[in-house]
Amino acid sequence: SPNCLMLSSCIPVHTCLCRLVTCILSVSLARANGNSYAHRGELRQAKRIVVKLGSAVVTRGDECGLALGRLASVVEQVAMLQNQGREMMIVTSGAVAFGKQRLRHEILLSQSVRQALHSGQNQLKDMSVPVLEARACAAAGQSGLMALYEAMFTQYSTCTAQVLVTNLDFHDDQKRQNLNSTLQELLRMNIVPIINTNDAVVPPPEPNSDLQGVISIKDNDSLAARLAVEMKADLLIALSDVEGLYDSPPGSDDAKLIDIFYPGDQQSITYGTKSRVGLGGMEAKKQVGNSNSLRVSHLYPQVKAALWALQGGTSVVIANGTHPKVTGHVITDIVEGKKVGTFFSEVKPAGPTVEQQTEMARNSGRTLAALHPDQRGAIICHLADLLVEKKEEILAANKTDMDLAANAGQLSSALLNRLSLSPAKLNSLAIGLRQIALASQDSVGRVLRRTRVAHNLELEQITVPIGVLLVIFEARPDCLPQVSALAIASGNALLAKGGKEAANTNRVLHELTQEALDIHGVKEAVQLVSTREEVEDLCRLDKMIDLIIPRGSSALVRNIQRAAKSIPVLGHSEGICHIYVDSEAAIDKVIKIVRDSKCDYPAACNAMETLLVHRDILRTTLFDQIIDMLRTERVKIHAGPRFASYLTFSPSEVKSLRTEYGDLECCIEVVDSMQEAIDHIHRYGSSHTDVIVTENAEQFLQQLDSACVFWNASSRFADGYRFGLGAEVGISTARIHARGPVGLEGLLTTKWVLRGDGHTAADFSEHGTLKYLHENLPVTQPQPRQMTAQRED
After folding, report:
1. Minimal CA–CA distance to 745: which of 733, 737, 753?
2. What is d(CA 275, CA 260) in angstroms, rounded to the nearest whole number?
3. Which of 86, 148, 188, 507 has fewest C-beta within 10 Å?
4. What does the pLDDT look like over 471-513, one tens digit per residue?
5. SS3 of 22-37
6. Rounded to whole angstroms, how far apart are CA atoms 26 and 716?
């Protein structure tokens, strides 16, 4: 109905949106090269891209002149994408603002000359600029705007061409064909077309002229949408001064940006405040009455244009192009599939978003933390029972994952081993979970310190959960029940992001975990992130996630540490573990320790990667036995620079002394003293686990700065089970919070509780009646619990 766009202030927003969507979806448009992209990750495939620059992006805050810094960053990004082989088009505003600056300057200059001639200098201060007509400003500004674009793109060896259009160019078939042909030819010649409405001559738009299935050109939003569909663009990026669509009034405490907008949704959305400049821009939404009475007085032009382009087969992202922290990479981030702005998709997202999952986990996690320790322990024990009872279901899902991985042929034998589950592994997991349940009895709410500050004023420091944990692990499904149990024991909410290789196994294990949690009504405390969420996007949820724990390759950990700029990351990026064989080492100890450290499980992060030997050991029986043992175990040896200098025919010289092999390979290097060994480890190690084999190790133990420092013991002891922690979420090489194997204690923080009786700070002032006592009170410590160590391979 033509009336579907004529909204009165009494129609609810979801009704307006529903009518708008019904109207737009009735347009019969077919995109020759396929439908729009369903997921953000697919935007990397976009070949032809239209970038719409709103007036607020292009112009300065005073609306007179251009924002040259923002414009330069946009040009740089567009040129970079163009040079990657993409076809870029720009729909730009700014002619009016640029012309206004020029005309104001001319008027002021003219006035100052006339006043100087006729009235004297004393009246210059009374000069005023008359209201400037927009069409005149556009006419004065078009040439200067284009000259600026041309000069900027020339810096990147990119050619541009200006195209001015009006509504008639799209409604007249011959003119539309001519426009299409011109743009196609420009793109073929690797030229960036810069398109704008010819505001110097364009007539006012006719109301509702776009309701016959063809959107009219009222502003640059509608122009960009019409152009994107006409040119069969893969992606339309609409930049303005708003972040995107919100689920409640922007600026309110509960407002959340909508990441993916599905046109079929009838949810209430908020359109933000009106853009400060431009003919189109944002339409305001006003609130009448309570929160359930949201109304709109006008439609949102960008949403209407975006929906029209989406139905025409072009994917759309609405984002902020004015924020100083993101302007320099907002366009490239969108093309790379990162979560920026609001992405319009015709495919309705399956299940809750990761933001919704995080919110559910946090709310349920607070209830979990408030449970009695026996209740949390019962949940973990029930999960342990389910691992045994449902082992056939778990192993069937795991077999599916193993078969898919084997057919794909992309996983190494070590990763396939980690992916595989067996009845023995499940039984071992169940035992470990019961140990965690036992340890959870005295974890949350334990008093660490008590102080009597004054009479009837006592201060306590107690353990509390950290909050929401994000654990990212690769092809290792046994990690899910382990970290779930540790999170439950410590009262933390958990987001688990597993590798796609173990998708079926993880799904079953997560269902069992939620079944166990449900016995005390906290089913949502552990969430499995199974959407197409990029790890980097998860690392940006700094207001929702409190700690990230990566479990996987060094490359995964490094990427997460680099991406998580505002969220602490617990873990290590590399496990470059050293064994130093001193001149006073005993032969029998050396052989056993080196063999176990390197050959027991070479892919583990606590396996030996570099063997340091004292110079005096070379050409001795001990050194010959070490080499013979390594050869017997089929360990490939790489020679360090000094070791290679002692050999006539040396093994392959190491490319880097900072190498984590993760296989039956190691580096051998020679040092002159214990101090030189310490210095070498500090320079080339990763502060994970380092070992000395000798009879006198005090200097090594005191001076070496690693998370784990061992004397006459295998590096493989750096493990939560072997330390008696019950289980571990990883090994941390950080200097704060937790270090080394991190178990239950590492997932807790503390808070201070002060119990008073009407005390005020004034009571302790110079003229007050109370004095500080600061007496330490006894704290009853829990009895240590015995745990059986289990290898975690």
Report:
1. 737
2. 22
3. 188
4. 998 888 999 999 999 999 999 999 999 988 999 999 999 999 9
5. HHHHCCCCCCCCCCCC
6. 66
Residue 113 buriedness (CB in 10 A; 0-12 / 13-18 / 19+): exposed
Neighbour count for residue 724 (Cβ, 10 Å)? 16
Is the pLDDT confidence value at 216 over 60? no
Q: What is the pLDDT of residue 29?
A: 39
Cβ distance 467 to 488 under 8 Å?
no
At how many degrees (to 10) do helices 13-25 and 301-311 cross? 30
Structure letter (DSSP) for residue 277: S
Quote the CA–CA distance of 168 and 170 in Å, as a whole number: 5
Helix (H, G, I), strand (E, B) or coil at 313: coil
For 320, the 3-state DSSP assignment is strand
Length of the chain: 793
**What is the per-residue pLDDT for 355?**
86
What is d(CA 53, CA 238) in angstroms, rounded to the nearest whole number? Answer: 7
- Strand, coil or helix: 463: strand
Q: Give the residue with greater pLDDT, 460 vs 114.
A: 460
Place of tokens 């958990």: 494
Tell me which residue of 633, 573, 639, 644 sits closest to 610, measured CA to CA.
Answer: 639
Task: Enter the DSSP assignment of 274.
Answer: P
Kindly provide the b/e burial profile for residues 292-302, where b requires at least 16 CB atoms within 10 angstroms of the residue's own CB: eebbbeebbbb
**Least confident segment among 47-61, 195-209, 328-342, 401-415:** 195-209
Strand-pair partners of 577 = 608
Name every residue whose Cβ is closer than 8 Å to that of residue 706 and which is 6 or more positions away in sequence: 681, 685, 687, 688, 689, 690, 733
Q: Tens of pLDDT along 283-308?
A: 333 232 333 323 232 336 788 889 99
- Helix, strand and coil percent figures for the chain, each rounded to 5: 40, 20, 40
pLDDT value at residue 204: 57
DSSP 683-699: HH--SSEEEEESS--HH
| Sign of the dihedral defined by the CA atoms of residues 403, 406, 411, 415, in that order | positive
Q: Which residue has the tokens 């032809």?
A: 48
To the question of pTM greater than 0.90 for the whole model, the response is no
What is the signed CA dihedral for 283, 288, 290, 296, rounded to 10 degrees?
-30
* The pairing of beta strand 608-614 with beta strand 636-639: unpaired
Query: CA-CA distance, 143 to 138, in Å (whole number)?
Result: 9
3-state secondary structure of 290: coil
